[in-house]
Specification:
heterodimer; A: 77% helix; B: alpha/beta; MetI-like fold; Rossmann fold; 3 domains; nine-stranded mixed sheet; five-stranded mixed sheet; 49% helix; 12% strand; disordered C terminus
Chain lengths: 315, 625
């Protein structure tokens, strides 16, 4: 097992390097002069030139890439000019908030999605199946940012059950119950689409598995139907559900950008949008690389989970 | 194509989605000629009018602009941008995919590595990076969304192209001296286009949503121009005071995406052949029973099958897999059922405990008595208690019939645990003991193996061990040795024979191999096209087969040391079981067939034997049963 994890970690290195190359190339496409963008249109040519030299922008592209990469490896992601603080500090702090939001949403969508999918398959063409299929269809069609806004209207404004936005109450908040109260709506809104996708996939994976010979064996042994569904069939279906969980984690992370804007959640997505609007390129660059690398690492976790479940994968 | 459209139209939800989408598209196309107020003219005196106020059907927004007009113009813009993004992504992605798939080798490797890298991003990070580089604006958002979706098309189209690039007509074009460019455009592209179109139609809703999303974030369309996303984004600040300005564009996005999803699901379902064949229907825990008749009990012996009828109902067709099959097994006896594949022998065996997949299987008549109780139509719980405890099954191909992700020890333990409360340590000890009983060497270590770590013979032994777990009265073995080589087969058979003698097990043994029958079975029943055509003591039947079919079937078996003998294959094929003849099903292939054979033929019984033939080979002593 340790060997397998090591092997997957090693194989992640080229992927992360590839990500840095892609991000670097995209940023190199910036039309015009980044220094002018930073200093604004009133900058004197001397100032622009000096800043270009400070940022190393007068050097050739390849050299600039390796300087940037080398700096990142030593933990130096550069300095955000709009916030005037190191990019890494800001990103790490913001990513923490995103992780709470996206992590909760991910756990929610994995749990509810699989649950709904299994029930749907077990009761195929019954009322539960039809009901779940209908709700899922609506769930995957509603834009999460619209759903979030409607939730605010209903639960925060009309019913006054939950706070409108933010991560903590401004006065007297900061403890866990306060965080949870603020978390319910954004995590819920964020989980909806992924829950629908996972439910659909789980349903079809279960139906596929329930046709297989070893399910007949389980029935011939006298395993009660509940055990056939939840132990025999679900265990085998998880082999095709787990990779989709990995993909959906990416979509949850993406959706978090919208949800953070709607609920004013102080996460990395909102930071990126602000940075783009202020043309704080280093902050965007650092944030994107950091989050993408984390996502690659998460997918290694998914692969490890898969290999724990399926002994046929060579470890 | 017409059949496809018909299938699509039959799906009511897809049809509804199609109609709604067509309406939205139609209105969007007609927007310039509709009598709408100008969408961008502000009038601060008329701010935040509610819907249905005079002159403003949907009210006005924070700058007093008419919401209906803005909504329709915004819809037009969102649809256009989403479609454009889809087309761009499809064209570039497909081109990349076709090139990678056609040239293969290094080109393929390099391109697909790049595609994998792009897919390693959560999509929005890439889109944000592109917008950050290009600057905000609708065109840049469009480029970002298109770029993010290129890998999806590249990967799908590459897969399809790889399949086509090695077909004969492409080789022929290459040999005819056509250049790569011409082959790609004339031979490959026309075959890939349908896939591209379908992939595009399923992702277009997604693209509309993504571009709307970027506009919502303020990175897409810039004021005063507005698509649905930026309308929603601008309305957000007035969400609490004037919710209608948010609800109007939000609902429109929802309606568009939902109708595209419905349509896309319909397309997918219409294209999936498995849905039509019912291959994705969940089998019920026990076979459906709709009996037209039920023979009276109580039965004799361990198992008494009477006039069993099992059918498969697939759409309007009825496949009569098992017809009026009657069998008896006494305690400690071994009865063989022999016949060609498709003759209904396995379905007979599975019907006994209600294990025929249902749908499409239905038991339509007869009874199965076990200990005086009729199992057909018995409550599920009664069946479940008997399954694996009193009546156990051994199946063919144990790689497919054992759970692939569970250790064999656990699978054995479960067989016991579901029927008897036994402590955990004891379960493990029993599992090891069972493995020893079926002569698996080194059972203490093997108990923790997964099925794929065992050889075929070992797996089959595990299957047998599982059947023996609760010391059943009857074992139903469905071709347990067919997948094995001859030496292993002989070992397994002698193992079963020993167990039968030691424990007084009754066995119902299904096979297509006369050699196996001779070795193991006391009596044998021969099945053809869902009926028993002959039954009797094994020795008698092997020496003097009465039914012409039995005789011909035995003639097909090669004999060791029998010199060169012509193996007489039976001419023709068994009848399809959805079109069974009234009379003898074998008559069309039989030399002795006469006119009388087209009328129903009854089973004629003598003392120990019975045969369903008007002109038996070797006249057994006849008196009607």
């Amino acid at each position: 097992m340790g060997g397998y994890i090591l092997k997957r970690l090693v194989s992640a290195v080229p992927v992360i390097l590839g990500i840095t190359v892609i991000v670097f190339l995209i940023m190199a496409m910036i039309p015009g002069d980044p220094a002018t963008a930073i200093l604004g249109s009133y900058a004197t040519p001397e100032n622009v030139e000096k800043l270009n030299r400070d940022l190393g922008l007068d050097k050739p592209l390849v050299q600039r890439y390796f300087i940037w990469l080398g700096n990142m490896l030593t933990g130096d992601f550069g300095r955000s000019f709009s916030l005037n603080r190191p990019v890494l500090d800001e990103v790490a702090e913001r990513f923490n908030a995103t992780l709470i939001l996206a992590g909760t949403a991910f756990v929610l969508c994995a749990f509810l999605g699989i649950l709904a999918g299994v029930i749907s398959a077990a009761r195929q063409y019954g009322w539960a199946d039809k009901g779940i299929t209908f709700v899922v269809l609506i769930g995957i069609s509603v834009p999460s940012f619209f759903l979030g806004m409607m939730m605010i209207l209903l639960f925060a404004v009309n019913l006054r059950w939950l706070p409108v936005s933010g991560m903590f109450a401004i006065y007297g908040g900061g403890d866990l119950p306060d965080l949870l109260r603020h978390l319910v709506m954004p995590a819920g809104a964020l989980a909806v689409v992924a829950t629908g996708v996972i439910a659909r996939l789980s349903r079809s994976a279960m139906l596929e598995v329930l046709r297989q010979d070893f399910i007949r064996t389980a029935r011939a042994k006298g395993v009660p139907e509940r055990g056939v569904i939840w132990r025999h069939a679900l265990k085998a279906a998880m082999v095709s559900i787990i990779p989709v969980l990995g993909i959906q984690a990416g979509f949850v992370l993406s959706g978090a950008v919208y949800i953070e804007i709607v609920f004013q959640w102080p996460g990395v997505g909102r930071m990126l949008v602000d940075a783009i609007l202020k043309r704080d390129i280093l902050l965007v660059q650092g944030g994107v690389v950091f989050v993408a690398a984390c996502y690659v690492m998460f997918n290694i976790l998914v692969d490890v989970a898969q290999s724990l479940l399926d002994p046929r994968i060579k470890t | 194509m017409i059949a496809f459209m018909k299938l699509l139209a039959r799906n009511r939800l897809a049809l509804a989605g199609g109609i709604v989408l067509s309406l939205v598209v139609l209105v969007a196309l007609l927007v310039p000629v509709l009598p709408l107020k100008p969408p961008d003219v502000t009038n601060t005196a008329e701010r935040f009018h509610r819907p249905f106020t005079e002159g403003h059907l949907l009210g006005t927004d924070h700058l007093g602009r008419d919401l209906l007009s803005r909504l329709l113009w915004g819809t037009r813009l969102s649809l256009a941008v989403g479609t454009a993004a889809a087309v761009i992504a499809a064209v570039i992605g497909s081109a990349v995919g076709i090139v990678a798939g056609y040239f293969g080798g290094r080109t393929d490797n390099v391109i697909m590595r790049g595609v994998d890298m792009l897919m390693a991003f959560p999509y929005i990070l890439l889109a944000l990076a592109i917008v950050a580089a290009l600057g905000t604006g609708l065109l840049n958002a469009l480029i970002a969304v298109a770029a993010v979706n290129i890998p999806f098309f590249a990967r799908n189209i590459r897969g399809v192209t790889v399949g086509i690039a090695h077909k004969e007509f492409v080789d022929a074009a290459r040999l005819a001296g056509m250049g790569h460019a011409r082959i790609l455009l004339q031979e490959i592209l026309p075959n890939v286009v349908p896939v591209i179109v379908i992939a595009m139609s399923t992702t277009i809703g997604w693209m509309i949503l993504e571009t709307a999303g970027l506009s919502f974030l303020g990175l897409g369309s810039q004021p005063p121009q507005a698509d649905l996303g930026s309308m929603l984004g601008e309305a957000r600040s007035a969400l609490i005071t004037s919710p209608h300005t948010s609800v109007v564009p939000g609902l429109m996005i929802f309606i568009i995406v939902m109708s595209i999803n419905l349509l896309g699901d319909g397309v997918r379902d219409a294209l999936d052949p498995r849905l039509r064949s019912g291959a994705l229907t969940r089998p019920q825990p026990a076979t459906t029973v709709q009996r037209a008749f039920a023979p009276e009990g109580p039965g004799r012996g361990t198992l008494d099958v009477r006039d069993l009828e099992t059918q498969f109902h697939v759409g309007p067709r009825i496949y009569r897999a098992v017809n009026e099959v009657s069998l008896q097994v006494a305690p400690g006896e071994c009865l063989g059922i022999i016949g060609e594949s498709g003759c209904g022998k396995s379905v007979t065996a599975l019907s006994i405990m209600g294990l025929v997949s249902s749908p499409p299987g239905v038991i339509t008549g007869g009874a199965v008595f076990h200990d005086g109780q009729d199992l057909i139509g018995a409550p599920y719980d009664t069946l479940r208690r008997l399954r694996g405890d009193k009546v156990a099954y051994i199946f063919q191909d144990p790689l497919a019939t054992l759970h692939p992700l569970t250790r064999i020890g656990e699978q054995l333990a479960e067989a016991i645990r579901v029927h008897h409360a036994v402590p955990k340590a004891e379960l493990r000890r029993r599992a090891i003991e069972l493995l020893k009983d079926v002569r698996i060497p080194n059972a203490e270590a093997r108990v923790d193996n997964f099925p794929h770590e065992l050889s075929g013979g070992m797996r089959q032994r595990v299957g047998i061990a599982m059947a023996l777990a609760n010391e059943p009265e009857l074992i139903i073995a469905d071709e347990p040795t067919t997948a094995l080589d001859v030496t292993v087969q002989a070992q397994i058979l002698s193992l079963l024979d020993d167990l039968r003698r030691d424990r007084g097990l009754a066995i119902l043994f299904i096979t297509h191999d006369f050699g196996v029958v001779a070795q193991l079975c006391d009596r044998v029943a021969v099945m053809y096209a869902g009926r028993v055509v002959e039954e009797g003591p094994t020795g008698d039947i092997l020496e003097r087969p009465a039914h012409p079919y039995t005789k011909r079937l035995m003639a097909c078996v090669p004999e060791l040391g029998g010199g060169r003998r012509d193996l007489a294959a039976i001419p023709g094929l068994p009848p399809a079981v959805d079109q069974l003849p009234m009379g003898c099903a074998f008559a069309p292939r039989c030399d002795k067939a006469a006119k009388a054979c087209t009328a129903p033929v009854d089973l004629t019984r003598s003392d120990k034997r019975s045969v369903r033939c008007l002109f038996p080979e070797d006249a057994i002593e006849r008196h009607s049963a």
